[in-house]
Specification:
By secondary structure, this protein is an alpha/beta fold. The protein has 3 helices and 3 strands, in the order αβαββα. It has a domain of 56 residues. It is globular, with a radius of gyration of 13 Å.
Length: 81
């Protein structure tokens, strides 16, 4: 269970947009299981160097999907090798 407190005018998408503004990143990875993560997935659509991953079964605009957090952790462990 999570309680998230945010300013009503600042969300994940706005924060990521500010991080991307005028900067170049070689690789971007965004994974999430919440409806608020969709803002980020949508924002990253035009970036060829971005990998977006929806965790769970809900509809998503992410490019990829993992069925569970465990699958996501396994994937991240493989990346670090």
């Amino acid at each position: 269970m999570v309680v998230e407190v945010m300013h009503s005018k600042i969300g994940k998408g706005i924060a990521v947009g500010k991080l991307l503004n005028g900067r170049h990143y070689d690789f971007i990875l965004s994974a999430g299981d919440d409806v608020t993560d969709e803002e980020i997935f949508d924002l990253l659509k035009p970036f060829d160097n971005a990998v977006t991953i929806k965790v769970g079964k809900a509809a998503s605009c992410a490019r990829y999907r993992f069925s569970s957090v465990g699958d996501t952790v396994s994937f991240l462990n493989k990346l670090k090798k």
